[in-house]
């Protein structure tokens, strides 16, 4: 899409990438995602393993508790459903 439409996105959305992984696998994915962010050049071009141009990675999880993955990610915001309403609980206690 980037080559055809000259589109450049700084957001990567992953739906349930940790579902069947053990703790070590989750940690590896967290390290890889952090590396993708730190290797970003802002050009939006992929050059080898760096230059993804990402500023944000959104990981969607449903069955994994935040406590199980808190060491893998910088911030964990949660959407909690209670009484038919959904609420967003922002992770304001951790540094950005």
General description of the model:
This protein has 96 residues and is an alpha+beta fold. The protein is built from three helices and four strands; from the N terminus they run αβαβαββ. The strands form two sheets. It has a two-stranded parallel sheet. Helix 2 (23-38) links the parallel strand 1 (11-15) and strand 2 (56-60). The chain is globular and about 45 Å long. The chain starts with a helix and ends in a 7-residue tail after the last strand.
**How would a crystallographer describe the biggest sheet?**
2 strands, parallel
Give the overall form. Answer: globular
End-to-end C-alpha gap:
30 Å
Uncertain residue ranges: 41-50
Q: Which structural category fits the helices and strands?
A: alpha+beta
Mean pLDDT: 78
Radius of gyration: 15 Å
Helix content: 25-40%
- Output the strand order for the largest sheet: 1-2
Strand percentage: 15-25%
Please, how many helices? 3
Give the SSE string.
HEHEHEE
Secondary-structure blueprint of this entry?
Blueprint: H1 2-5, E1 11-15, H2 23-38, E2 56-60, H3 66-69, E3 78-82, E4 85-89
What keyword list fits this structure?
96 residues, alpha+beta, 4 strands, 25% helix, 21% strand, globular
Short description:
With about 100 residues, this protein is α+β, with helices and mostly antiparallel strands. Helix content is about 25%, strand content about 20%.
């Amino acid at each position: 899409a980037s080559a055809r439409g000259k589109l450049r996105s700084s957001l990567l959305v992953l739906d349930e990438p940790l579902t069947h992984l053990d703790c070590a696998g989750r940690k590896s994915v967290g390290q890889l995602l952090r590396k993708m962010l730190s290797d970003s050049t802002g050009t939006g071009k992929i050059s080898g393993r760096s230059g993804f141009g990402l500023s944000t990675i959104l990981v969607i999880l449903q069955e994994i508790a935040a406590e199980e993955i808190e060491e893998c990610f910088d911030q964990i915001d949660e959407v909690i459903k209670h009484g038919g309403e959904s609420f967003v609980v922002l992770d304001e206690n951790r540094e950005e």
